[in-house]
Amino acid sequence: MTDTKKSIHGQWSSRFAFILAATGSAVGLGNIWKFPYITGENGGGAFVIVYLACIALIGIPIMMAETMLGRRGRQSPINTMEDLAQEAGADPNWHYLGWLGVVAGFLILSYYSVIAGWGLSYVVKALTGSFSGASSAEIKTLFEGFIASPVQVIFWHTVFMATTMFVVARGVSGGLEKAVRFLMPTLFFLLLLLVAYAMNTDTYQRGIHFLFDPDFSKITADSVLTAMGHAFFTLSLGMGAIMVYGSYLPDHVSIAKTTVMVACADTAVALLAGIAIFPIVFANNLEAAAGPGLIFQTLPIAFGNMAGGWLFGILFFVLLVFAALSSSISLIEPAVAWLVENKNLSRFNASVFCGLATWFLGLATVFSFNIWSDFKIFDRTLFDLLDYLTANLMLPIGGFCVAVFAGWIMKQEHSRQELEMAKPEHYQIWKFLVCYISPAAVFLVFLNVVGVL
Ligand code: TRP
Asked: What pairs with residue 377 in β-bridges?
């Protein structure tokens, strides 16, 4: 029998609602903005293969584990971990895993919101026809001029953060559930359209070759870490986002099936974005390793030169912002849920508080692209540092602990009961992955970076 405890924050209306919300959380800037640029920076095909392997062997098993812990605990990650540790007779310090997630969520959202703000400003640029007929040099100048202006970037960061807080204050299953239902398929369609555009460039083959032909000599210890970190980032794992969404999941919904569906949808979006972008990069002699500005310097060229590009450009950036919004709320939800549970704050006050703190932290990212661009720690700008610290270190550490807890600490009968797999062998496979393969893989990647291997 499954636990019949319910979350005080409400519950998804159906299994489909959970799939939408989890897909909404997973599909975001990570797929469309980050995946292409880190693939470009890390040499293409071989990096993509390592990333796909990480999704399958580490991401999916841990995603199942995290959803399961959430549903069993039915509270914010901090309190869930505390209760589950107690239930398993384990050390109460496990609740620090929840804290690690809350901090990681803040740090990630602080820069996520700035980049989503770039997307917002591009909606306006698309609307006012800034891309129309523009050359790749003009598009580059447009982007560089924009990020060089703290005032403009802060303005859009503020708009995005305020919207996020507004949505979070209204609760998880309100308007957003409905919006995502129709926005996600539209985004998918637009990506297909961009892929069709890319297929008509004469550099299409070169783009495909870059993305899918592995050249393992381009892989370093650090690129393997980046690929693994991105597997966590793109599936929203390792910081409690999926745990908190799992806590709103009705009983008896198959966690395995839903997780695999979400992971496949997420991967498909990332690969489509890559297929659309790299042919455009090569057709215009742009740098594949251009960094965080990559999509903002490539896609507008396509919109500026295709039939109907004005409308598609607007639509694309609007959808990008919505995809970012449905992700950003999951980054802050663990903290908000905890404040509501433990500090007796209303959802509204908790959201405003978290939003202001994140907004403030976001200024570091804003400035790292202009007035502080020369300020480096360990040879990284503040933005790079935040990204490295969260995606490459905190999320894998969080995910490692989730795997260890689900595999080794939690009672087998409890995990079996929550997962309710159709076949006993499926449970065995999951258990093997989560006990041995996923934690060992994370550990080895870390050792490799430190230089022990
Ligand atoms: N997965 C989202 C993306 O790819 C970002 C995100 C949302 C996230 N929630 C998260 C990343 C939790 C890590 C942890 O854009």
From this structure: 380
